[in-house]
Amino acid sequence: MVSAPGLPHPETPDYDVVGVGLGPFNLSLAALADGLPGLRAAFFEQAPAFTWHPGLLLEGTTLQVPFLADLVTLIDPTSPWSFLSYLRAHDRLFRFYLYERFHIPRREYDAYCRWVADGLHSTHFGTRVDAVRWHPDAGLFRLVVTQTAPPAAPAHGEPPADHAGAWSTRVVTARHLVLGIGTEPATPPAFAGVESDRVFHSAHYRQRRASLAELSHITVVGSGQSGAEVFADLVRNQRTAAQHLTWITRTPAFAPMEYSKLGLEQFTPDYVRYFHGLAQGRKDALVPAQWQLYKGIDADTIAEIYDLLYERTIDGGDEAVTLLPGVSVQSTSLDGERGEIALACRHRDQDRTFALTTDAVVLATGYAARRPALLDPVAGLLRLDDGGRFQIDARYRIATDPSVTGHLYVQNAELHTHGIGAPDLGLGAWRAAVILDDLTGGHAYRLPPPSAFTTFGAPPQAGGYHHAPRTAATAATATGHGGPGGAAARPAAEGGGRREPDGAVEGASDRGVRRRQPVMLGEADR
Questions:
Q1: d(CA 181, CA 159)
Q2: Does the structure show a pLDDT above 80 at 421?
Q3: Where is the composition biased (Basic and acidic residues) (predicted)?
Q4: How far apart are the first and last CA of the chain?
Q5: Helices (H), 372-499
Q6: Average of pLDDT values for 393-404?
Q7: Phi-psi region of 68 (alpha: psi -120 to 50; beta: other; left: phi over 0)
Q8: DSSP string covering 338-369
Q9: Model confidence pLDDT, tens digit, residues 438-452
Q10: Of 427, 426, 447, residue with least CA distance to 438
Q11: Strand 341-347 with 352-358, pairing
């Protein structure tokens, strides 16, 4: 880095970029950054090890996106951190070949991510970021980092020198940050303040389902994929007709997820760019109207539930279930003596209220974005919209006060600015590549040209549309210089969705399979 004449030499940061949180999206960024020599990156996660929706890793459940939506493949199919590389490292390639499925088990996706997390040098678990501060004199973020658990013995050898030895709290500096802290289970207002072991979120279902076995009445609230999988699991394990299951949802039907090929083009970079360019009021109206794209149920899960109930009712058998679409829970109360849970419900179309008494409630009510306390020291420097949400540009950067020259990127906190693709695993690698491209001044990865068959928005020529072939040449994006985070501004169309709730390790010899040219930093960073 070169300082201007007459100014003190700027402080050299510990890292070019630090990622806070290690879910699939920041893990994707870490895996792709691993192929960029010269980019100094570190990723901190307070949990002791990687985990992805452990409460929903049920037998027989699969991802809702193809295995190509792993951490790296849609951007770099040659990466040593692809799902196919994981299969090879575990001698499972031929078994997967004969498996003949495009959608892999959730448990295997979790195992794959753990393999990548254990193999990367830049990932640090058991390490919590307590506070982030911006220091304008140095032009750096300073992070207060606390070790919450002894680091596990890494599969790739000794830990880096800067993490060796015993320490509890220290300060780490970085030029840029990426927030990937994920979401947290959302509890509807009707259940707020309810203190009962028998009312819990589906995020904890697998760990607590054994406690439901002997209860007489279990209610599932919420009809997305998580709610459907929990209900299907309860139906499969329903021991007698004496146990009754109720499934409640506000949506007007237990509806399937949109899975047509043209419909899924709303989970492409093309649609993300289009959506980001819309007025905020239009975005806010669009997202809830698209609920079947990201809150619907996999058609196979719906079919399985129906088939189970159909077979159960042969020869006049009791289905022992109640399905209630179009119903919202207004309030909840507990019967202290009998341990029952009373739900005050309303049928939305009929505007009729009724009471439901149950022994347990599983809340499959989705997840909400977090506003982490670690950002409190810089809260006054972050720009919010009229709804108190982060203003986020096309390259996933939070708008900040001009005094902040570093960039603060977000992953999966941009539903309101980038649309329903924000939590989609299929767009994770692309978003990570957009961020890395911005960090390195356009020298990270080749971003794909427009690829959707659908034209989102009005044709570019108002006076009669003439089609021009979209080629890599005509779709090339502009790049700029300025070092990590210093790319020249791109048009909105150049900016940077599907849904998910949530052995052997590749040896050092395999890590040399793919090496890129060193990252080209801008003049200010040399």
A1: 23
A2: yes
A3: 496-512
A4: 4
A5: 415-418, 428-439
A6: 98
A7: alpha
A8: T--EEEEEEETTTTEEEEEEESEEEE---EEE
A9: 999 998 999 999 999
A10: 447
A11: antiparallel
User: How many whole angstroms from its chain centre is CA 271?
Assistant: 18
Separation CA 68–CA 118 (nearest Å): 21
- Cα within 13 Å of Cα(396), Cβ side: 32
In whole angstroms, what is the distance from residue 33 CA to residue 446 CA? 14
SS3 451: coil
Q: Residue 224: how many CB atoms within 10 A of its CB? A: 21
Could you give the percent of the chain with pLDDT greater than 70?
82
Cβ atoms within 10 Å, residue 91: 10
Query: What tokens appear for 178 in the block?
Result: 């990426």
pLDDT > 80? residue 211: yes
Is 420:287 a contact under the CB 8 Å cutoff? yes
Beta strand pairing call for 183-185 and 367-369: antiparallel
- DSSP assignment of 14-45 equals SEEEEEE--SHHHHHHHHHHTT-TT--EEEEE
Maximum pairwise Cα distance, the chain: 91
**Which is nearest to 72 in space by CA: 86, 93, 54?**
86
Residue recorded with tokens 């207002």: 189
Report pTM: 0.84
What residue ranges define each of the domains in the chain, with the CATH number in brackets?
A: 15-182+370-460+470-525 (3.50.50.60), 185-257+295-367 (3.50.50.60)
SS3 content of the chain, % helix, strand, coil (to 5): 30, 20, 50
Q: What is the mean pLDDT of the chain?
A: 86
Q: Are 15 and 38 in contact (CB under 8 A)?
A: no
Output the CA–CA distances (angstroms, integers) from residue 480 to 32, 438, 489, in the order listed. Answer: 20, 9, 7
The burial of 325, by beta-carbon neighbours within 10 Å (0-12 exposed, 13-18 middle, 19 or more buried), is given as: middle
Q: 407 near 487, Cβ under 8 Å?
A: no
